[in-house]
Amino acid sequence: MSVINWFEDKRKFGGLIGAFLEEATRSSTSSERDRRINVNANKGLWARCDNRGNMLHVKFPRQSRSVCEERGYHLSMNSMERIELSIDPNTWIPMDEDTTARDVLSFSDEDSHESRILISQEKTGLTDAVQTGIGYPNGTLIALGVMDFHFMGGSMGSVVGEKITRLIEYATQQLLPLVSICASGGARMQEGTLSLMQMAKISSVLQLYQVQKKLLYISVLTYPTTGGVTASFGMLGDIIIAESKAYIAFAGKRVIEQTPRQKIPDGFQAAESLFDNGLLDSIVPRNLLKGVLSEISEPYLSVPYKKS
C-alpha cells in the first residue's frame, strides 16, 4: 500500500491521520517553527494538489513556491506569501493598513456582513481583501497591490476600491510603475451598488495614470480572477500577465451556458486559452514573476521620461 493510500484510509476512518501527524510532529527533528504548526483543517502538515490530488507536505510548497512539482500546478497562496515572493526582503512598506469596511447596508442572509468581515479578519490577519504598498523587486521600486482570495473570496468592496485607488494616486504622484496581483471572485454582493462603483472609481484613476501621465501598469491575473475585477482593473494593464492554468472570467461557465443555451469547451476560461486568443501578453511561472516584473519596470525608472 502506498503512503498516499494509507493517508486516505486513515482520513476515511475518522481523523486518525490528525493524531498521527500530531505525534509525528512532536517527535520530529525539524525546526521549532514547523513543530508549532497546528494540525487542523486550515493549517495542517499536508496539503492536497487541486489538480491531481497529490498529498504534499507543507515544506515542499514552501520550497517550491506552492507549485506542485509533478505537473507544475500552481497552488493557492495568500497575499503575504505573494508579497514575499515578489518583493525583496525587508523592503515592503504597506499603505492604508487600518482601513476597514462599514456595514452601511446592514446586509444579512445566513450571517451578517459585519460578522463575515470579523471572521475573515481573524482568519487572515488582514483588514480587508487587498494589501497595498511599495517595495523593491530585484532593486526596482514599484507600487504593488495584492488581493487575497482567503478574505471573503477576494471580493471587491469599498475598502478594496479605496485602497487600490489611493495606491494608484500615490504611484501617479511619485511616477512609479504599478503592479496589481489579482485573485478575486468579483464585486462584494454584501455592499450592493457601493461595490460596483469601485469598478468605475479605479478605472478613472487608472486613466489618469496611464493616459495622462503615460506610466506603466502591469496586471497579474491568478486563480481565480472573475467578475468586477476582471471587468475593470484586472484587464486594463498595459501588460497583462497570468499564472499557468489561472481561471480568468467575467461570468462562470454555467452562467454563460445558460444564456445562449450552448455548451462551452473545457478550459475555455483558462489562462492558456485566453493567451491563444490574444487577451493576455504572457503566461509567467510563479518562480519567474519577480524577475519579470523588475525587468519590465526598470526601463521606466531609468529613462528620462519624467516631466514636470
Automatic annotation (TrEMBL):
<dbReference type="InterPro" id="IPR034733">
    <property type="entry name" value="AcCoA_carboxyl_beta"/>
</dbReference>
<dbReference type="GO" id="GO:0009317">
    <property type="term" value="C:acetyl-CoA carboxylase complex"/>
</dbReference>
<keyword id="KW-0150">Chloroplast</keyword>
<dbReference type="GO" id="GO:0005524">
    <property type="term" value="F:ATP binding"/>
</dbReference>
<dbReference type="GO" id="GO:2001295">
    <property type="term" value="P:malonyl-CoA biosynthetic process"/>
</dbReference>
<keyword id="KW-0444">Lipid biosynthesis</keyword>
<dbReference type="GO" id="GO:0006633">
    <property type="term" value="P:fatty acid biosynthetic process"/>
</dbReference>
<dbReference type="InterPro" id="IPR000438">
    <property type="entry name" value="Acetyl_CoA_COase_Trfase_b_su"/>
</dbReference>
<dbReference type="GO" id="GO:0016743">
    <property type="term" value="F:carboxyl- or carbamoyltransferase activity"/>
</dbReference>
<dbReference type="GO" id="GO:0003989">
    <property type="term" value="F:acetyl-CoA carboxylase activity"/>
</dbReference>
<keyword id="KW-0808">Transferase</keyword>
<dbReference type="InterPro" id="IPR029045">
    <property type="entry name" value="ClpP/crotonase-like_dom_sf"/>
</dbReference>
<dbReference type="Pfam" id="PF01039">
    <property type="entry name" value="Carboxyl_trans"/>
</dbReference>
<comment type="similarity">
    <text>Belongs to the AccD/PCCB family.</text>
</comment>
<keyword id="KW-0276">Fatty acid metabolism</keyword>
<dbReference type="GO" id="GO:0008270">
    <property type="term" value="F:zinc ion binding"/>
</dbReference>
<keyword id="KW-0275">Fatty acid biosynthesis</keyword>
<keyword id="KW-0934">Plastid</keyword>
<keyword id="KW-0067">ATP-binding</keyword>
<comment type="subunit">
    <text>Acetyl-CoA carboxylase is a heterohexamer composed of biotin carboxyl carrier protein, biotin carboxylase and two subunits each of ACCase subunit alpha and ACCase plastid-coded subunit beta (accD).</text>
</comment>
<dbReference type="GO" id="GO:0009570">
    <property type="term" value="C:chloroplast stroma"/>
</dbReference>
<comment type="function">
    <text>Component of the acetyl coenzyme A carboxylase (ACC) complex. Biotin carboxylase (BC) catalyzes the carboxylation of biotin on its carrier protein (BCCP) and then the CO(2) group is transferred by the transcarboxylase to acetyl-CoA to form malonyl-CoA.</text>
</comment>
<protein>
    <recommendedName>
        <fullName>Acetyl-coenzyme A carboxylase carboxyl transferase subunit beta, chloroplastic</fullName>
        <ecNumber>2.1.3.15</ecNumber>
    </recommendedName>
</protein>
<keyword id="KW-0479">Metal-binding</keyword>
<keyword id="KW-0443">Lipid metabolism</keyword>
<comment type="subunit">
    <text>Acetyl-CoA carboxylase is a heterohexamer composed of biotin carboxyl carrier protein, biotin carboxylase and 2 subunits each of ACCase subunit alpha and ACCase plastid-coded subunit beta (accD).</text>
</comment>
<feature type="domain" description="CoA carboxyltransferase N-terminal">
    <location>
        <begin position="45"/>
        <end position="308"/>
    </location>
</feature>
<keyword id="KW-0863">Zinc-finger</keyword>
<keyword id="KW-0547">Nucleotide-binding</keyword>
<comment type="pathway">
    <text>Lipid metabolism; malonyl-CoA biosynthesis; malonyl-CoA from acetyl-CoA: step 1/1.</text>
</comment>
<dbReference type="InterPro" id="IPR011762">
    <property type="entry name" value="COA_CT_N"/>
</dbReference>
<keyword id="KW-0862">Zinc</keyword>
